[in-house]
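Example (one chain per record):
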Amino acid sequence: MQPTPWDHYWELRLSALEDLGKREAILEASRLIRTLAEAPGKTARLLELGCGEGQIIGALLEAHAQAPGIQASVGVDYRRGVVETSRRLYPGMKFLEGDFTDPALLAGLGQFDLVLLVNALHEVFSATFSPERGEVDVPRAKERVRQALGGAVGCLADGGWLVLFDGLEPPGDGGQRVHLRFQSWQARRRFETFAQEFKPFRIQYRETGEAGCVELSQHDFARYIDKSIFLDKALWESERLESYQYFTEAEFRQAISALGLSIHELRTLTVNYEKWQAEVEILTPGVDFPAEHILILARLNTQKE
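Predicted structure:
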């Protein structure tokens, strides 16, 4: 397929965006906006929940400023500092400070043609930390994610689209043991930092007796490797508080279908494969680095079409 003018536009516009997952979400949302803009009588009102500093919704509104209804778009985040940054970076756009898990806040927002949830639901999951357990209360946390997802879907207009991008829990036996060899002493030190400071779950591993090698569960391996790119960086202070792993692909499918949406596209992505290979070698036969993120485009079923 020949590159389109939009392909060239986004290649230049997103060249500085290191987070490839956000890039994928922006590209898919852009495609949906263009489809809506071409349909008679359709609007392209966007709502981004957990918008951070507005990178995603800001880029989309700037690129599609002439799309019908797009100026009625809204970004929401609970952190005052990032909302103030969003307003400064994208003057004229509407950003609200608030908790998108609050039904009262959502009820006052209205309905939108696209709802964006990009790296947002894992924060809902991670916030359900139990001091008694010393880690996340998983059943309660998953229920809070389902409730938050339901609230987001409630903001969709008839025939509206959900664009969801977030972390992914690998399928299969999470207790399976994975044997690793660190590629350097620096990588080993970073792993120890992760094991000591990662808050959502207690990380357990054992020394194998081989130089630079450890063994840990598939669950903990996925948590470690997903966070490895943040170790030794300023972002680690916030990233150590959050787990990207909460739903498997099957759980995502079930939760979205239960809310009356049809999944039109679902992709799992391995974003940082080469960076991971530079950190560790997997010695367990048949085990590879996981697909650690999921991208879903789902549409609200409607009787009007």
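Caption: The chain has twelve helices and 13 strands.
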